[in-house]
Request: fold
Amino acid sequence: MVVILDFGSQYTQLIARRIREAGVYCEIHPFSISEDKLRAMEPAAVVLSGSPASVYDDDAPMPCEAALDSGLGVPTLGICYGMCVAATAAGGRVDPASKREYGRADLTVSSTEDLFYGFDAGTATVVWMSHGDKLSTPPSDWEVIASSHNSPFAAMRDRRRNLYTLQFHPEVVHTDRGRQILDNFLFRICGLQADWTMDSFLDTAIAKVRDQVGDGHVICGISGGVDSTVTAALLERAVPGQLTGVFVNNGLLRKDEGEQVRDALGSYFKTDLLYVDASDRFLDALAGVVDPERKRKIIGRTFIEVFEEAAHESDATRGKARFLAQGTLYPDVIESVSVRGPSSTIKSHHNVGGLPEKMKLELVEPLRELFKDEVRAVGELLELPRDFIRRHPFPGPGLAVRVLGDVNREDLDILREADAIYIEELHRAGIYDEIWQAFAVLLPIRTVGVQGDDRTYDRVIALRAVVSQDGMTADWYRFPQEVLARVSSRISNEVQGVNRIAYDVSSKPPATVEWE
Ligand code: XMP
Reply:
């Protein structure tokens, strides 16, 4: 395993994804991890991430010494801040920049032996810079292996310590040959094998589940989203006959979703799927509630009640269930260092807390180590319907956080119709898979319009579409204009009560993906 020490860079997760894409297992740990813990993991290599911090800050993040001087005896790759922190520890000098260097730079490689194997010496390749501090005097035993106009020490190595450092970011797509640089580090320098595949993951995960669960019974809430569906399918494969999937229709699903999930998953899970229609109960509990966090709490609480009752009433699970399977993914469990504080404080937490304690259940979380795209790959191996695997993420509180303000049946219907048209047009244009998440939002206002000879005073639909790696940060999707035009005209013509359509052009941060 490769250990990435996280100093808080926005790109840390990207480093992990690139390494995994290369077929090598890696984990992210906070920079402050102790030397003992780090040693106990027996890493094959260490990567020092970037950071928004400066080595001159009073509270500059510093890892244990062994991570900096290669005291662990394994190759180390320092990226950006990772370079600066390793250089200062080795006696080099870093200058605080008067302004950040941000954007593309031409890198000229001088040594093509290891990190830049396969490159041509002397020719330029595009790399992505994003740094404040910059190495000005390297430690005496470091060698320059590549440079750019503004960064004469853009890539360096210290062979004695098996240490390689880069001022730029090989993990971002704007660095043209970043993947090759990382591959060279993993395979040429560290001598690792590309043996982290989803096939091997699945075998190990199945064995682990069998080990944990034994002959116990497992229940699993299935929402129809990727994570919970793949979790349940993995359980079904690992411990057939010992799983009960519970699908709760909370009345906050998209158009026809309840039936679709029931049909598609019903044929996969057969009698192991329990369908509970609790729409009225959820909508009654939400009546008159406007505050988004209160909505989330009510939905979470009602879900626990419904789930518990269903488990109690079903012959399959009554008194039997000992385990609760959850589709927790790796981004939920990484203890990332964030300058803005843990992201979970921005909106209340996504998984249903409270259930395991209340029902005295032990958690089974077979996807804890995976990123979303890896989960999709596992879903394909488990032969789940492709439509389910490729679906955009959908939040637990569903349309309750997309009907802004008070949630009622009439507004939910308006939103469902508009959303269905929007998603249908994305499929028709062949761009659904390019987008991380797209949905319609119903605003709690009315605006003036004109239809035929009549003045209208009707509702507004906002369209949201974002591209993202993991939902932590996101950019708004640059739509082909004709698609937006068609969606807008169809919604205003076909959805009664809507006379205006807006497109949301905010990224995250400062906005969030959902409007509530
Ligand atoms: P935000 O709006 O926080 O969304 O930028 C990031 C991702 O999380 C989803 N999301 C939720 N998922 N329960 C969930 O299960 C929630 O309360 C919740 N709030 C946001 C959102 O759809 C996006 O994918």
About this structure: The domain at 198-389 is CATH 3.40.50.620 (Rossmann fold).
